[in-house]
Amino acid sequence: MSGKVRARFKLNGEDVTAEMEPNQTLCDYLHDVAEKTGVKKGCDTGECGACTVLMDDKPVTSCLVLAPQVDGREVVTVEGLGTKSRPSPVQWAFVELDAVQCGYCIPGMIVTLSWILEHAPQASDSEVRRLMSGNLCRCTGYLQQVEAVRRAAKRAAAGGAPEPHDIY
Ligand code: FES
Ligand code: FES
Question: Could you tell me which CATH class the domain 89-157 is placed in?
Answer without folding.
Answer: mainly alpha
